[in-house]
Hints:
Distance between the termini: 72 Å
Shape: globular
Radius of gyration: 30 Å
Strand order of the largest sheet: 1-2-3-4-5-6-7-8
Structural class: alpha+beta
Helix content: 55-70%
Amino acid sequence: xxxxxxxxxxxSRLFKMAKSRYSSAEVAEVIRNFINGASGAWDWDxxxxxxxxxxxxxxxxxxxxxxxxxxxxxxxxxxxxDEGAKCLERIAEEIEKREKLxxxxxxxxxxxxxxxxxxxxxDGRLVYVIPQNNRDQAILLTYKLHGDVLIxxxxxxxxxxxTRYEFLEDGHLKTETNGESGIWKKAELTKEDLSWKNHYKGxxxxxxxxxxxxxxxxxxxxxVFVFFLPPIGRVLNLMWxxxxxxxxxxxxxxxxYEKIKKEDxxxxxxRWRLANAYRKNGQxxxxxxxxxxxxxxxxxxxxxxxxxxxxxxQIENFxxxxxxxxxxxxxxxxxxxxxxxxxxxxLSLREIDEGIAALKRSIELNPDYELSYxxxxxxxxxxxxxxxxLSYIEKYFSRNKATSSLLxxxxxxxxxxxxxxxVAIFYRKAGLEAFPEDYFLNWDLALEExxxxxxxxxxxxxxxxxxxxxxxxxxxxxxxxxMIEKGLRLDGQDN
Length: 495
């Protein structure tokens, strides 16, 4: 079999006049025309035969060539088979999405920042510009696309971060990174914006002999910046505080954010981050103080109300938590997380009907959050609405896998109350397959096995005793174990 890549390299020398400066739109058009049979006699041949100067489009060209090898044609008149054509279609869609992403985007609404600008360039560079203390701070990244995920990396501190994005009907861009979302609008580039394009040229190849000298100079320069230029030191401290937070080192994160706050008490972004670090570190009074400061300065900041609600809920101040969550929903009616907060707090306050309504709204907005289903179905069981509880459980399992045994336990209870023994057995077995060490599912099954399979019940009883002593040493569970032992004795299976 002829090696397609070597064949194309040879042909590229023969087609020296072929076009090498394609735009993204032109490449997408060439691919689509080829798939639809609308291209000229030599258009496709010219495209795959000559190297393209743009590095990204050159990668696209090589991927298109590879399609011919990975999905070989069934006849001489074809370049590839049907699966290959679908692959080319996906490549064209990726190019069009990328082309739509390019340019300048201004933040309309975001969880992490109040104001920011994002520049996405054709050469794989991405720059965030964030106003700080009457000057602009630039965060310089590289990026690549994978479907609807934007994968960024920071050359100075290599660590990939994934951002899910989608284009809204009004042309705005919605992004979500580590649970923090943002809405961006497309903006026109100005002459001043050109400085950001040249701000970072990307990584360069350095001769090995020069690396040691350059590294030493870089370390000395960095030391000068950190110790003699406080603003640069503050930026680094901000980065380290954020990294400590992401690494669950909340005490370190608090310490660093407090240091920045001391230098600049009006730095709203730091006060917001400090509040989150306090809450994660269990310093709830301090967290409440910081959230209230953010709300006073920025009364439309919905995440501050939501996180303050979590803080009140954690210290069991449920009335304040409920009022705060409701304020968050006023600011953002489609906030599934805040509706969940309203539902869980309402149940704690014994306001069952309000809790059920709020949890249903939360599931409507986010049908993949397992804990919403568990709390809702538990509340529905309390209202003896077992059929409805089972319908919600079935809805969840039709979309997702369980991450805990709670829903299985709730499903077994609902089915048993409806006397649907086959349904109860199904969820009990499915739960034990996923969570074989779960105490409650094992206990429930042991009660059944006492009647049908005493030998297995005896083994399960020994396991339950071990778990009970280690974790659940209370009166109720001791009575459960006694019930199983009694059943075994009545069946004459003591030994």
